[in-house]
Amino acid sequence: MAGLATASRNDKDRQAARNRELRRRQALVAGGVAAVVVLVFVAISALGGDDGSEDAVGTRGSTTSVPQTKAAPGLAPPTTAPFDGWVDPASSGLPWSSEVVGQITFRGNPTRTYYGLGPVPKAPEILWRYPESGGMCGQSAVGGKAKTWCGTGWTGQPSVWLEDGRTWVAFGAYDKNVHFMDAKDGSDILEPFAIGDIVKGSVTRDPDGYPLLYSGSRANFHVIAMDRPSGEPESLWELTAKAVSPTKWNDDWDGSPLVIDDYLFEGGENGQIHIVKLNRGYDADGKVTVDPKIVFNAPGWDAELTAALRGSGSRVDDVSIENSVAISGNTLYFTNSGGLVQGWDIAGLKDGVTPKRIFRFWTGDDTDASIVIDRQGFLYVAQEVERSSSSNRLSEVGQLIKLDPRKPDDPLVWSVEDPHGFWATPALYRGVLIAPTDSGRIVAVSQSTGEILWEKKLPGPTWSSPVVVDEVWVQGDCNGVLHGFDLSDPRVEPSELWNVQLEGCVESTPTVFQGQIFVGARGGAFYALGDSPKTTEPSTASSENKDRRG
Question: What are the b/e assignments for 125-139, b being 16+ CB within 10 Å?
Answer without folding.
Answer: eebbbbeeeebbebe
